[in-house]
Amino acid sequence: MDYKWLDWGQQIQAIAQNGLTYSKNGYDIERYQQLRQIAAEIMAAHSNTEPSYILDLFSKEVGYATPKVDVRAAVFDSDKILLVLEKEDGCWTLPGGWADIGESPSESIVREVYEESGYHTRVVKLLAVYDRNHSRHGHPPLAHHVYKLFFQCELIGGKPKVSLETEDVAFFGEHEIPKLSLTRVVPSQITRLFEHYRNSNKQTDFD
After folding, report:
1. Residue 69's beta-bridge partner residues?
2. What is the pTM of this model?
3. Could you tell me if 52 and 73 lie in one domain?
């Protein structure tokens, strides 16, 4: 499927956001607001979403437009990887989420793993930095441009515990991976993480 419309929408939104950040002239501000509206309408037309919903998402973005950062943990135990079951879509994913302001990426992922699974971990290595763009890894379309950071984490304590976002916690072997939450992680990424686990000398992946 061709998602060129998503690239156009994201790029127009970024131009609009940067323009609204730095422009002082009222006429220019109006034009950038119109660009933001066009970007929302492009995305809405191709995603069965109301333009007002997308415009509201865009309006919350301020300052110079940059990609968002999503952190994910690869926690291995006895040749199995830790996954959590998302309440939102009923599918499994690596524990993780948006990096928080005021935290380093490693601090964010340690917190996310504990909150979503109940396990205490220690970051060992950055395994991959991927562009979430649909054409690169097969994620479903998303309004925002996202970089995904995958960390290998060592299990050091805790016990399985669900959270407000998760309803199950379990370890799975490479050939028993359940249905994944594709907006968060895709099968090829899980496969690659197991490859890193088996060969610690692999260099960090990046797009």
Report:
1. 147
2. 0.82
3. no
Share of the chain above pLDDT 90, in %: 86
Torsion of CA 62, 44, 184, 206, to 10 degrees: -70
Are residues 181 and 137 both part of a single domain?
A: yes
Identify the domain containing residue 12 by its residue range.
4-59
* Total domain count, the chain: 2
pLDDT at residue 134, as a whole number: 59
| CATH number, position 97 | 3.90.79.10
Percentage of residues of the chain with pLDDT beyond 70: 99
Model pLDDT for residues 48-72, shown as the tens digit of each residue? 899 999 999 999 989 998 999 999 9
